[in-house]
Known about the structure:
single chain, alpha/beta, Rossmann fold, about 40% helix
Amino acid sequence: MAQVDFDEDIAAKIEALYRIGDAVLRRRMVREALRASRGERILDVGCGPGFYCAELAAEVGPSGSVIGIDSSPAMLQLAARRCDGHETVELHPADAVSMSVEDASFDAALCVQVLEYVPDPTAALAEIHRALRPGGRVVVWDIDWATVSVHALDPALTERVLHAWDQHLTHPSLPRTLGPRMRSLGFQEVRMRAHPFCTCELDPETYGAALLPLIGAFVVGRNGITDDQAQAWVAEQQQLGARGEFYFASTQACFTATRPSS
């Protein structure tokens, strides 16, 4: 089955997801890892609904600039609305493996939860390497979906649901190979920090709770899961939440690296 299609409906759901507390926390951690400074030129690869573009525009100031690229017209439309009034932000339709940007033209780049959807992540990383100036910095953030742990009354159904959910992207465990991919392209100082996002409450501000309806809608018809089974799984998780027994944990990986100065 095909992975998720970033149409207007999915784009709107992702925009809503990016407003929750866990997403706000993650954006802060990404910006801290990127260390954008006044006057810098920043590339956002797979900018989605434009949250990073708008926030980084404030960090680089009027003497800097932010270029956001995305292959989804629906995402770019949301980003354009969010970045309206930010004169230093430019948005362009482009694929991560064929970005129409000049060589060595950016001080830093970020790519947050994008490469796990790209069939050839190494090609996309090579494009980022090409776009960075010597000494430029990159932040790549992706999720190892194999680390997802969910408490369940029906473990067998939950296992089937999570396996079906893996079909929403191309590389469910991309962080396992990101380090070698980056080093093979010449990136230096490749480092990774793991960030657990866990909750024992059905709090809508957490990834665990916010993902439930997205998972329930996506898995129908995949891995033999019927609509009734998907609804039953979501209802079970909501029941666990009402009883104070909800549990969700996952590990997200933040990779940082630099293009060599010479």
